[in-house]
Design brief:
Blueprint (H helix, E strand, L loop, with lengths): L21 H11 L10 H8 L3 H13 L3 E3 L4 E3 L4 H10 L2 H16 L3 E7 L2 E7 L15 E3 L4 H8 L3 H10 L13 H14 L2 E4 L6 E9 L5 E10 L5 H20 L4
Antiparallel strand pairs: 1-2, 3-4, 3-8, 4-5, 6-7, 7-8
Helix pairs in contact: 2-3, 5-9, 6-8
């Protein structure tokens, strides 16, 4: 599978400038600068990826080492296992993974497939829950993985559930990286995809992230009708033609989504 685009630190909530703590923002940017292609870096490399001065980047890195969130050999720096606590805090604090887990386990047993639940975080979807598939070999991502939203069905249905103006702004700002020849990189084509997904209430992607795989997903809505997450299944394309997916899996996903609606905030 091709490498994924690293997450970027962007403002998600407007605040008064006097309430903004620049040091905290820079520290978070340093943490997010590490990814699969940049697992070990010098202070200069971190500075180049974050736009922070090298001397400041080094101080942030040493502070992270001091508190156990990073490690160093004196030249290179890398994240330590303790940084996982930041993600675990979210999973522990939110009710969503625990709320959906029993339902996706039932759906997995019913369909024989691995079921995932994702949320939209900026320009990525983040996997937050996964069933224990009855299959010996399961496909799809595990909780905590981030994927660019334009290449997975869960991202499409979550964006399709947003209003047109918000989606247009998202599309205008998004980097449409191609992962396979089928990946949609044209912004107008992607907007049309979202309109079709909105009209259908579900979406199916074939080979946009990984050749030979396809995904199907529906939005998970709360009692007020807002889409708070997406429910999806990843499949081998040769075993599941679209007609079979529409006939068997779309109704099953829809029923599970409806059963969860009264439980979601």
């Amino acid at each position: 599978m091709p490498p994924l685009t690293p997450p970027q630190l962007t403002a998600a909530f407007p605040i008064d400038p006097k309430d903004h703590i620049e040091g905290l923002a820079r520290g978070l940017a340093v943490i997010e600068s590490f990814d699969g292609q940049h697992g070990r870096m010098t202070a200069s490399e971190v500075a180049a990826r974050t736009g922070i001065a090298r001397t400041a980047a080094r101080r942030y890195l040493l502070t992270l080492c001091h508190y156990g969130f990073a490690q160093t050999d004196g030249k290179l720096f890398w994240l330590a296992p303790r940084v996982l606590r930041l993600g675990e805090c979210f999973l522990d604090a939110t009710r969503l993974p625990g709320t959906v887990q029993p339902a996706i386990e039932l759906l997995s047993a019913r369909t024989g497939q691995t079921v995932n639940v994702c949320v939209l975080d900026g320009h990525d979807v983040v996997y937050i829950a996964r069933s224990n598939s009855p299959r010996l070999i399961s496909i799809g991502f595990y909780p905590g993985v981030r994927v660019p939203a334009h290449v997975v069905t869960t991202g499409v249905v979550l964006l399709a559930a947003s209003d047109e103006s918000s989606v247009q702004q998202w599309v205008d700002e998004h980097t449409f990286t191609a992962f396979t020849p089928k990946t949609v990189t044209d912004k107008s084509v992607f907007m049309n995809t979202l309109r079709h997904a909105r009209a259908q209430g579900y979406w199916i992607h074939e080979g946009h992230l990984d050749v030979g795989l396809q995904g199907v997903a529906v939005p998970l809505r709360n009692r007020q009708g807002a889409a708070v997450a997406a429910l999806g299944i990843t499949l081998h394309r040769e075993s599941w033609p679209q007609e079979r997916v529409v006939a068997e899996l779309v109704p099953a996903l829809g029923e599970t989504a409806q059963s969860l609606r009264s439980l979601l905030r």
